Amino acid sequence: MSNILNAFLDENLQELRDQGLYNEIEPVEGPNGPIIKIKGNDLINLSSNNYLGLATDEDLKKLNIAAVNKYGVGAGAVRTINGTLDIHIELEKKLAEFKGTEAAISFQSGFNCNMAAISAVMNKNDAILSDELNHASIIDGCRLSGAKIIRVKHQDMDDLRAKAKEATESGLYGKVMYITDGVFSMDGDIANLPGAVEVAKEFDLITYVDDAHGSGVTGKGKGTVKHFGLEKEIDMQMGTLSKAVGVVGGYVAGTQKLIDWLKVRSRPFLFSTAVPPGDVAAIMGALDKISASTELHDKLWENGDYLKAGLKKLGFNIGNSETPITPCIIGEEKLTQQFSKRLAEEGVYAKSIVFPTVPKGTGRVRNMPTAAHTKEMLDDALKIYEKVGKELGVIQ
Ligand code: PMP
Q1: What's the rounded Cα separation, in Å, for the pair 63 and 277?
Q2: I need a labelling partner for 222 at 20 to 30 A (CA). Which of 13, 157, 193, 287 fits?
Q3: 54, 112, 135, 358: which to mutate for ligand 1, most atoms within 8 A of CB?
Q4: Is 145 an active-site residue?
Q5: Can you give the residue ranges of every domain in the chain?
Q6: Topology classification of domain 18-47+294-391
Q7: pLDDT over 80 at 21, yes or no
């Protein structure tokens, strides 16, 4: 190994370990359902994004296997050579219907979708107004575009208006975009899209919503844009196929013109192999299920409300979540990590989230209940929370 790389790695890894910020990965030994096995122990799983339990759904497994039998395990090429299978086109039609738009384009992941779509539309002559708590993939997509990035205070429409006015009146930029998560994954709050649309109309901003945590969850399953009835107002509706949908991938839904452009200018669409056919079939099955019935959606919200009420009653600070995402704010980083470790020892897997993912001093254990949890599992989890909370002095 080069001496300089060796020294760089030693120094930086040690620094992370000293600060307690090095994340040791613990593999899950089986399906990522409401109960997971780690190091041979069964734990109540409150850390997955498998909101509707579809990642382990029996019908979707069958669809996946049938597609593998028909098409094979891989798509064989990038979309623009000959990796576009008929089911990729079918999926994109379904996504457009699901999101109430003219067209849609799918990608291999939500992360590369943001990198691709933002940088295909924005360039170094432009500016992007970006909520300060936006996801890392949005930040990276904005950076990749080369546009000027202007951070907007979290959900602050006055700050957005002031910065939109300044950016558009300065004459320095071509296009100006406002970009926001639809649901913020660390706090569970829902973006003020009506407020953002009002500002966007005033200053002709391009609007981009990353609804990774909203699709399947808000808007009776159809997402945050639908929740506010703004399908005609938001220019770019981005989402993932890896969370509530339970599989893998990302997409943008919008006008036919926008999708035509993304199909010729999104680099992962042009240069990275298409989503495997088994995944495509399972995704379509999941979208059908979400569209056909709100049963899983309703169960998810019921479980979210139940867990929130239970933690609140025990005296925990659960923040201001408006969705099933349930943060339990502990505060200091080391205490937060210790809390999560003790929960795991007692039988609950709920990951700690600390700086730099969230601001210093707001460390939290984030709980993601799903439609697949039973009341008994949530009651067991609450008992363990009570025990660990009292032991570590977080509650009385
Ligand atoms: N956007 C947001 C808001 C996310 O939370 C995530 C996933 N952590 C992504 C994009 C990336 O999605 P994926 O995991 O499908 O790549």
Answers
A1: 10
A2: 157
A3: 135
A4: no
A5: 18-47+294-391, 58-292
A6: Aspartate Aminotransferase, domain 1 (3.90.1150)
A7: no
| CATH 3.40.640.10 corresponds to the domain 58-292 | yes
Can you give the pTM of this predicted structure? Answer: 0.96
Catalytic residue among 222, 227, 243, 299: 243
Is 243 an active-site residue? yes
The CA 114 to ligand 1 mean position distance, Å, reads 9
| 179-220 confidence digits (pLDDT tens) | 999 999 999 999 999 999 999 999 999 999 999 999 999 999
What number is the ipTM of this complex? 0.99
Mean pLDDT of the 143-171 span: 98
- Residue list, ligand 1 pocket, CB within 6 Å: 109-111, 114, 135, 137, 181, 185, 210, 212-213, 240, 242, 250
The active-site residue, picked from 47, 48, 106, 185, is 185
Q: Which residue has the tokens 């006055």?
A: 158
